[in-house]
């Protein structure tokens, strides 16, 4: 007489480790460098964290503080603004403007009580697929360590 096979599926036991929480990250990437850098990572099949939505803008200088605050309001746990390295901006000084905008944005983010680590500015060129992947991995872990944004939690409850 044969025995029934052991049951392999079913509810997790109370002692089973919980699955890691995955943050929601919004990436504003300039069309000419950072978005292309993400594309380079993709076509090169470089593995990286996938927990982000990318919004393509023509230049990092286009990222008004309101864009970032809106992303947090809509439930983002972290926001990355990314553009061309200095000297490479296709609009000459757009990334210098991005730095000014970023400083204002960071001030507002802190005023709202969010941690500085939820917002980051990075320069990534079209050829830097490896760098794009590294930034996404590192930023995802940083936001994960901070936990869910309080605004996102409010949104999830509502
Ligand atoms: S075009 Fe990339 S930062 Fe301006």
Topology:
Layout: E1 25-30, H1 34-43, E2 52-57, H2 65-73, E3 78-83, H3 94-111, E4 119-123, H4 129-146, H5 150-157
Parallel strand pairs: 1-2, 1-3, 3-4
The structure holds FE2/S2 (inorganic) cluster.
Residues 30, 32-33, 59-61, 83-84, 89-91, 94-95 line the site of FE2/S2 (inorganic) cluster (FES).
Structure write-up:
The chain has 158 residues and is an alpha/beta fold. It has a single domain, classed as 3-Layer(aba) Sandwich (Rossmann fold), CATH 3.40.50. Helices cover 40% and strands 15% of the residues. It has helices at residues 34-43, 65-73, 94-111, 129-146, 150-157; strands spanning 25-30, 52-57, 78-83, 119-123. The chain has a four-stranded parallel sheet, with helices on both faces. Helix 3 (94-111) links the parallel strand 3 (78-83) and strand 4. The longest helix is centred in the middle third of the chain and has 18 residues, at 94-111. The radius of gyration is 19 Å and the shape is flat. FE2/S2 (inorganic) cluster is lined by residues 30, 32-33, 59-61, 83-84, 89-91, 94-95.
